[in-house]
Structure formats: structure tokens, C-alpha cells
Design brief:
mainly alpha; elongated
């Protein structure tokens, strides 16, 4: 009975982990990693300690990178602190005002508004906004690939 509950919770964590790659309110990689831990604590399935530690470290690194990548790309595309904060605020506002597309459009619009408030003209403000968008897409892609790999291990362990 406990194994069934742990497996069901693990399956739910896998699904929420993938959704969390797109919805920033859910910690996608962390939830996906949780699915491995839940499956590991069943009496039927287990992973090696080195496997769990390795994936735990990767989860932490990807979670940190997800915060750093959009900031880095906004800066790399000549963004200022105004653009970075605008991107962060745009992400939060977009999440609630225009879900789920607001998560994609919000950082772009926020960075653009931030840069125009700083005094940049439209062309100059568009460049960091594009950088913010590129950073969001890159972070999302990294998280999706990682969560897909974890999903593979989760399903493989159950089926084999």
C-alpha cells in the first residue's frame, strides 16, 4: 500500500516537474528529482547512492542556472539593472495576468519597459528584451531536457 502511494506521488511529481519547467511558480527540476526519491523509497525500486547524489547536484546546478541565465543573457544583450528587474517583474506579472503565455511575454515586455524607463530608445530597449527572451527559452530548454531525462529514468525503473 505504501509503495503504491509513493509511486503515485512520484508519478505526480514527474508531471508537475515537467509543468514546472514552463510555469515558474513550480520548481520543475526539484519536483522531478523528488519523483526519483519517492520511487527510491519504495520496497520494489531503488537507485544507487551515487546516482541520487549526482542527480541531486545537477538539480541544484540547474535551479541556480535558471536564475542566472536570463540575467546573464539580458546583460549580454546590453541590458541594465532596469532591464533585469523589469524582466523579473514582467515574469511575475505575466504569470498572473496572462497565463500561461504571460510567462513567455512578461519578461520580454518587462525588460523592454525597464530599459525605456532608463532612457533607452525603442531600438536600444529591444535588444536587452530579446536577450531576456533568449535567456528564458534557454533556461526552459535546459529544465525540460533534464526533467525528460528524469522521467525516462523513473519510467524505465518501473517498467524494467
Amino acid at each position: 500500500m505504501i509503495d503504491t502511494i509513493l509511486m503515485a506521488l512520484g508519478f505526480l511529481a514527474v508531471i508537475l516537474g515537467i509543468l514546472g519547467c514552463i510555469l515558474p511558480i513550480l520548481p520543475g527540476p526539484t519536483l522531478s528529482y523528488l519523483s526519483l526519491l519517492l520511487l527510491h523509497f519504495t520496497s520494489k525500486y531503488s537507485f544507487s547512492t551515487s546516482f541520487l547524489i549526482t542527480y541531486g547536484i545537477i538539480t541544484v546546478v540547474i535551479t541556480l542556472l535558471d536564475t542566472v541565465i536570463p540575467i546573464y543573457t539580458t546583460k549580454r544583450f546590453n541590458g541594465s539593472k532596469y532591464g533585469i528587474w523589469g524582466s523579473i517583474i514582467g515574469l511575475i506579472v505575466g504569470l498572473f495576468v496572462f497565463p500561461p503565455f504571460g510567462v513567455i511575454v512578461g519578461p520580454f515586455v518587462g525588460a523592454f519597459i525597464g530599459e525605456t524607463l532608463r532612457g533607452k530608445n525603442i531600438e536600444e530597449a529591444l535588444i536587452p528584451a530579446i536577450g531576456s527572451f533568449v535567456g528564458f527559452l534557454t533556461g526552459t530548454a535546459v529544465k525540460l531536457v533534464f526533467c525528460a531525462i528524469i522521467t525516462y529514468h523513473f519510467i524505465k525503473r518501473i517498467l524494467l
